[in-house]
Each structure stands twice: as structure tokens, then as C-alpha cells.
Amino acid sequence: MKELQHFEEVASELYNGDLRAWKEAGNRIVGTVCSSIPEEVLHAGGLLPLRLRAPGLLDTASADAHLHRINCSYTRSVLEVLMRGELSFLDGLITTNTCDHMLRLAGELEAKAGFPVHYFSMYHTLGSASRHWLILEMERLIRYIEESFSTKVSEEDLRQSVSVYNRTRRLMAELGELRKKDPPAVSGAEYLAVAVAGMSIPREQFNEKLEALLPSLRERSSGGSGQPRVMLVGGACDMPEFIEFIEAKGVSVVADGLCFGSRRYQGEVDENAEAFLPAIADHYLDRIACPAIIDGFDHSYGILRQMISDWRVDAVICARLKFCDHWGGQRKMLAEELRKESVPVLDLEREYSTAGSGQIATRVQAFLEML
Amino acid sequence: MGKPFERTMAITNGMLEPMSRFLKENPLPPYQDYAHLLAAMLDHNVAHYRDIAAAMGDEKRKVAMYEFGLVPQLFYAFDCAALCLEMFPGFYSRVDESVVYEFLEAAEEGGVPSDTCSTDRFIVGATLSGELPTNSFFVTSSSPCDGTRIAYPILQKILDCPMLFLDAPFRNDRDSVKYYAGQLKDQLIPFVEEHTGRKFDIDRFREVIVESNKAYELLVDTRETYRVKPAPHYGMLRTAPYVLFMHGAGLPETTETLRLFCEDATQRVREGRTEGPFPQKHRVMWVHVPPTYDRELFPWMEEQFGATLVVDSLSSTCVLEPIDTSSLETMLEGLAWQGLDMTMSFMRYESADFIDFTLSAYDQYGCDCMITTQHVGCQSICGARGLIREACREREIPLLFIEFDYNDDRVLAREQMRAQIEDFFTTVME
């Protein structure tokens, strides 16, 4: 579809045309490695937060010599693109410790980046202690922004950024609603392309393009009616081609819990809050929790269960990255809960850059036959 | 499914206790001078596991099962028995590897991926097999690793048991200690009160902390003697004081066992007889976990190559201050600090800090080579490989990486591991 083409194009490369234009206008880009790093704060500092990806990368030979083969292929891919010099357009980088892979990636990035790197120490529980910690970390992040980029981040800046990001969330929610139809208005692959585009170009620009896109999608159908409706969950997955590969087997991916997908756009920050850092903290703690959050399963499962009901999901595919312990554990708990609801779950282990393979095709096909 | 803790007690009563008795009656050469220390360590373990078994059947007590990001003093202040679950696999792999296989397989059959850390698979497998103590509650933290962050939520689902989740800060500063201490006060104390039915008694808590400070000073003094060349005590005993402290900090019997170690080591230093049965040629720093399935490894290294383990990255974390007992806040901050920096939680350090700490210990103990293990379930130490290698190259430190599973000898058998070590000492170190 022509209207979707721009989103698909910007999702297909990291340093896309829109980013080049942003840089040429004298603006700054800061890389991030995790969807739990509050982007609003970076945006409030006049920076463009770019979730790092490695589209098209097939080989991580240089990174493999530094990280280990049991570190996930997402972290090795990010290190690989850095070592190849493909991140030289960045002005800064925010690393974190969401998982052990990320923690050690942070060390490598800090040692090799050559531009200001800030370590954002991630919380791993829900509740008031973590809320307090998250606020402290955002304050540290603001100090990094102010010191590294000679700028100031005011409450008014935060308010404006929250407003921009909430607009994105409302628009993405609208797009998500269109996936409830049968057949859905957009395929799972198309939705992911839009979602990834949202973290790959200036946010205001994205909002305008998405707002313009939505009317053209309202009467549209994607795929056939009556196909099995699937939810996709799992670790780092930013490749629309992977979902396309699954959908080609005759299913519609109508919902997801991906950190590159709908999870990133859930909920809103309270725009009437007296102070914005606490409001942003509340928002991040209220979303579907990453499986790294040790007491987050019941909270996340409650949201996923509601989505399964609202989007009339027939089955769940958990596509987790090899060596990701968090998703390995989450998959086990999820499968046990969903079994009680008679919702089948397919466990797929994949590498970050894998769009599809004979093995995945066979397993998906067998799963669909079971459905 | 067996009775809870049945196998553990069978090993405790049927193997550890007789072994201790045998050592006291028949000190075996060439380690006869150290037999009393080995026996004291075994006696401490026997008492420790018997206390857990006793608490299981005592309605006035509870078993506190805690993760290796905490220290046990607060539980002892509530008269709980305490079991650090991450130490549990090593208990079995030292004496009966078949139980380790059985529990690992039980976890995998239960849906835990086979590439998850074997410690966490073991804990889940032991739970599914009914071996964990009953009459218990669990306390876990979010460090040190991904494996613990999934094992404990799974445990909670399996057992539907009381479990407290604490957020360990992944920073290494005063704010972090205060943050963690705040959770001990606001969450841990009320949680233990609720599950033991006892009110928190600050005077009793202070008594326990005072006792653990005595143990701590003995631990630090013992470790100080390892800086002497040659270092006193042979390899089998090297990590014992640290493990004793981690099991029993705050108990008088732990203090007394540590006193034995400390007095023996300091007397040897005073009298200039620190040389062990074999001449010390190399001083080794061991980074990350040792193989629990090869308890003879360190004595073997000494005998074959004169290579003495003088410091390991885990037990060298005893570099803090004794806990300030002046107020509840200072005591909790001390406990928080120990929990964050003296346990496996130190793996939460950022890579640069972790390497600085390691190199600092390497220098302090006068080492001349480093062995770094790459436990195949630990993405953290494996992921630090590149930076460790670069740092060692820069310092010209001879370095051996060993990739293995520290609980499971099927990944790298004893003989294969020893062959790698032999190659290192007969080529690089010659």
C-alpha cells in the first residue's frame, strides 16, 4: 500500500533519510537500547531518541570476538554495527542493564563508542521503591543531557514532550483498534513497520504521517476473513519480514506484546500531573512489564489476557531470542496460564536477524494445523 | 517425589558427619595439619542443615530461603533457620552428581530452557522434586542475574508460597546502599514479621549484628594472611571462611569456626610456616565460579604445578567495613552493603567497575596469573570476556578462560578441564 510505503522504508534501515535530514538541519540523535528508557526525557532535551537496531545485518563476527556466543544476537548485532562504524552519526548513547546481555553490551559500548555514553540503571520490580529509583535515574539522565549537550530540560519541556508522545500513543492505539476487525485493516507486519518507524524518525513528523495514514486504513482489509488470529510476544523483534513470514502461512497477527511493537505505545502519561518525572515513572511501571521485572508477571498477564479477549486471539506465538532467560521463563509461565484458558502457545526460538527458516516454517505450519 | 529435605539430610548424616569424624580420627597426609579445619567446616555444615531440618518441624520457627543477593543476619534475628538457595546445588555436586542431573532434568521437563543457568534449573528441579524445606518463606532480589530473575517467579508459581521480591540497584554508590536498605526496612522486616508471627526486636537484631561483625573481622583477618608468600592453608580451604560467613553470619558457632581458621592462619604467618605440602610457584586469581563438581581441583593444581589459589573474585569482596550498630538505619545499610557487594550480587557491577575490582584484588594478593571461568549459563561473565581479555593484555597478565558449567560435569568433564589447566601451566606459565 502506497501510504504505508514510507513507514516500511524508514523501518528498513537504521540511518534513514528522515534522520539524515534531521542531522543536516543541525539536530542531535541519541541511541537507546531498551524500550524502558524513558524517551520523553531525551526528547525534552531537544534530542531525537533512536532505538538501535541492525536491519539487514547477517553477520556479527567482530562483536562475537568481544561478547560471547551465549549473549543474545540483538546485543551482538548492536555491538557489530557500532564496530563497523555505522553508528558514527550518533551524538550520544544511553545504555542500560535490563538483562545481563544488556549490562555487558553497555560495558562494550562505553569502551568503544567514542561519544558520550550514559548508563541508565534499570529497575527490576514494580512498586513504590522502583518508582523512586526510576525518578532518580531520570534525574541523572537529565544531568547527562544538560552536561553533554549544553542544554536545559525544564518542566515545560517535559510537558511538551509528554504531549507529543501521548499523541503518538493515541494514534497507535487507533491503529491497533483497526486490527480488531476481521480481516484486520493492517497486517501484523505492516503494524510492526509503523511501530518501528515511530522510533526511527522525529516524533512530530511521525505523528503527522500516522494521522494522515489512519483515514485511508479504516475501510481497508488485510488478509482473508476467518483466518486464525494470533498474538505475537517475545524479545527484540523489529523485522516486519519475520511477521510476514508467519502470516504467509495463513494467519493474521492481530496483536502483540513486543517491545518494538505495541508494548512501547501502551497507555498515556498524565498530562495534568504537577510534576512530570513521577508521572512518566507511573506510566512506565504501568505498561506490560518486561519479563526482566521479577514481580511483573501477574500484572503483564492481566493486560495480555484482556488483549487476547478484545482482539479475539485464537493462539499465541512466543518468539524468543536464543539465550534470553527472561523470555524463556516468561514463556513457561505464560503457557501454563494460557493452558487454563485453552489458548494454545507456540514456542519459537529465533535469532535477531532471522526473518524465517525451514524449521520455523515447519513449526508454524504444524501449529496452525493443530489450531 | 521424596520427603522434603530428605536427601539433604541423608547426605548430612550419612556422609558429612562421618567424614568429619574420620578426619578427626585419621588426619591424612599430606594434609594432616589442616584436618581439624576441614572437620570444623564439615561440622558447621552439619549443624547448619540440621537446624533447617529442625525448623521444618517446629511450629514456632520458619525456614528463610533467600537468594544470594542477601546475607542471613536479619533472618537469624527472627530465630529462623536460613538456606541460601544458590549454595544448594554445590552441596550436591560435591558429593552426588547424579542428584544434580536429576534435578536439572526435572526442571527441563517442567519447561525451563536447558540454556538457563544450572543453579536456577537445579533450584526449580529441586522444588519440583519436593526437596526444598517446608515451613518456609522466600526472599529474593533482582540481582545478580537473569537466571535468578526467572527462577524465583517460577518457584512462586509452582509453590504458591510467600515470596518477597527486592529491587537490587545496579549501581555501586551510597545512594544505592540507601535505596536497598530502605527496602529492607519497609518491605523485608514487615514481610518476615508477617510470616514468622514475631515482632521485630531491634535489641536482638543488634546482638546478631554484633556477632556477625566479630565473624566479619575474623574473615577479613584470615583473608589478609593470604597476601603472605607463600599463602597459608591449602586450596581446599581457601574459600571456606567466606562460605561459612555467608551461611552463618550472626551465629556464635560461625564466629567460633572462623576463629579457628583465623588463629591457625595467623599463627602460621607469625611462625613463618605458611608453606603447604607443596612449594608455591604461582599465585592464581580465580575469577567467577569454581567447578563445584571437582573439589580436589585446587589441591591438584598445587601438587602438579605449585599453583596456589590465593584469591577468587567472589570471596575477595570482603573489603567493606564492619556494620555500624548505632541505629536501625546504620545496621540496615550495613546489611544492604554486604548483600549488594559481598554476594554474587557484585556481578551487577558495570563491566569497567567489575574489571577494576578484579585487577585491584589481583594486585593486592600478589598474583601472577588469572583463571576466568565462563559458566555457560551466565551471560554476565561470558559477556565480560572481551573487556577482561583486553584489560589483561594491557597489563600482560597471563589469562586462561575455561568454558564449563560449574555444577554439571557433563558440559566439561574434570579431566578435560584439568587438561586445559595443565596446558596453561606447562606452556604459558613456564
Task: List the SSEs and their pairings.
The complex is a heterodimer of chains A (371) and B (430).
Chain A: H1 2-11, H2 17-24, E1 28-32, H3 39-44, E2 47-51, H4 61-64, H5 73-83, E3 92-96, H6 100-112, E4 117-120, H7 128-149, H8 155-177, H9 188-198, H10 203-217, E5 229-234, H11 240-247, E6 252-256, H12 276-286, H13 297-310, E7 315-321, H14 325-340, E8 345-350, H15 358-370
Chain B: H1 6-25, H2 35-56, E1 63-66, H3 73-77, E2 81-84, H4 88-93, H5 97-109, H6 118-128, E3 136-141, H7 146-159, E4 163-166, H8 174-196, H9 202-225, H10 240-248, H11 252-270, E5 282-287, H12 297-305, E6 307-312, H13 328-341, H14 351-364, E7 369-375, H15 379-383, H16 385-395, E8 399-404, H17 414-428
Parallel strand pairs in B: 1-2, 1-3, 3-4, 5-6, 5-7, 7-8
Describe the protein.
The complex is a heterodimer of chains A (about 375) and B (about 425). Chain A has about 375 residues and is α/β, with parallel strands linked by helices. Chain A is globular. Chain A contains 15 helices and eight strands. The relative contact order of chain A is 0.13. In chain A, helix 6 (about 100-110) links the parallel strand 3 and strand 4 (about 115-120). Helix content of chain B is about 55%, strand content about 10%. Chain B contains 17 helices and eight strands. In chain B, helix 6 (about 120-130) packs parallel to helix 7 (about 145-160). The mean pLDDT of chain B is about 95. Classes of the chains: A alpha/beta (about 375), B alpha/beta (about 425). At the A-B interface, helix 6, helix 7 and helix 14 of A face helix 7, helix 8, helix 14, helix 15 and helix 16 of B.
The strand order across the widest sheet of chain B is 2-1-3-4
Order of helix and strand elements from N to C terminus of chain B = HHEHEHHHEHEHHHHEHEHHEHHEH
- Cα radius of gyration of chain B in angstroms: 21 Å
Strand tally of chain B, please? 8
Distance between the termini of chain B: 52 Å
The parts of chain A where pLDDT drops under 50 for at least 5 residues are none
Instruction: Give the N-to-C terminal Cα separation of chain A.
Output: 30 Å
Q: What strand order characterises the main sheet of chain A? A: 2-1-3-4
Give the fraction of residues assigned to helices of chain B: 40-55%
**What is the mean predicted local confidence, pLDDT of chain A?**
96
Order of helices and strands of chain A: HHEHEHHEHEHHHHEHEHHEHEH
Please tally the helical runs of chain B, counting DSSP H or I stretches of 4 or more residues: 17
The major sheet of chain B is characterized as: 4 strands, parallel
Number of helices of chain A: 15
Q: Pairing-aware structural class of the strands and helices of chain B?
A: alpha/beta
The low-confidence parts of chain B are none
Radius of gyration of chain A: 20 Å
Overall mean pLDDT of chain B stands at: 96
Beta content of chain A comes to 5-15%
Oligomer: heterodimer
Shape of chain A: globular
